[in-house]
Amino acid sequence: MTLIRTLTVTILAAWLLPVPQLTAQNYTPQKLVFTGADHYKTADLVAVTGLTPGKPVTAAEIDVAMQHLVDTGLFSEMRYTVDGKALTFALTEVAADQLLPARYTNFVWWRPEELTPLVHARIPLFTGSIPVTGTMKEQVAAALSALALEKGVKANVTSLAYSQTIGGPISGLAFSISQPMVEIGEVRVDGVSTGAESKVSLIKRRFAGQEYDAFETGPALASNLRDAYLDLGYLDIAVDPLAHGAPQISAMAITIDVSTTAHEGAIYRVSQMVWPDSPIVPKAVLTDVVPLKRGDPASRIMLLSTISKVGERYAAAGYLDAKVSVEPRKDDAHHEIAYTFGVLPGEQYRLGSVKAENLNADQQAEFNKDWKLAPGDVYNQDTARASVFKMASARAFQGFTPKMNRAADPKTHLVTVTVSFVRGGERPS
Fold first, then answer.
1. pLDDT at 400 over 90
2. Residue 301 pLDDT more than 80?
3. Considering only CA atoms, which of 204, 181, 188 is closest in space to residue 245?
4. How far apart are CA 237 and CA 204, in angstroms?
5. Which of 8, 158, 205, 283 fits a disulfide with 275 by CB distance 3.0 to 4.6 angstroms?
């Protein structure tokens, strides 16, 4: 006699299709066969079922074995046939988009890539991914807790979906020790020169005491260090991958010291700054207002400030959509860099209308006196700000703070300005 039974799994539930009442007859299949599960080893599938080839088995026991397979969440459909020769499970694996890669964030006794084999030894069908249904997520968390206990830590392990980009689709499932906290102790950065020590020290203090994450701490520290060095003009800065020492275990936390090495190179200086010929903002004006000068260290933050200042000068002339670009030419032999700036000014904006809100008679008179732009005038951002600043110091506005809102219409190239007044607050800058 051959027994056939089918099990279908949906995203929310699993059930046995109705079949006639089965006998309690035992079967002694000499082997277990699995089809449709090519990503998994037969020995691992057998281990999950709990069955043993050559041992008598009832239909009820096979149902239990199938439920074990259902609980993994790895199969969307399954059925079996059984006779004295073989118990055959026909399985359908879930789609790849129903599996989330596992990430291990702070299990500091192991490298992340070492943990999947260790968890697999406890969960036979776990190969590094978690199905969106089933109980494997809980099983993996329990296995990780057991591994931590072997290191002398009673850990609460939690999981959280993560995305590679902010607001993007779910990329995987991150497992972490949430209690006790895994935190950074001492931060050591080797290769730091005297001139960079103060900035690097600030970064080290900022990271000490933070939660440790194997995937985020290293890149974040390296990014902070690179920015600090670039702000000092070290354009060839390189930072080694993060290393950490042995964990120090206390009742409250697991603490690890981390270290890296900075390869500074030389400080680069600005050899030349080339400005565009433009009747809108003369070169002499740009040379005067920008903070970065020829001969200065090639500071990233000063370059960004310079780009911002150029944009402000064009905005002051009504070119609110001006796009500032910079082309660097790096001279590695002499540790110099030349910057050539370009500006696409776009269209010039004019004042469409201005209105003030919540004014009494004295304030309205003061506003009419201090506001210097009329509808149709080229919109000068400096003039608008100066008008509002002057109002803030007038007697009529004592105890009030003007707030200016600018709305620019890119189709009409007109600006609508609304000035409101609130009691208290800080003076405009």
1. no
2. yes
3. 188
4. 17
5. 283
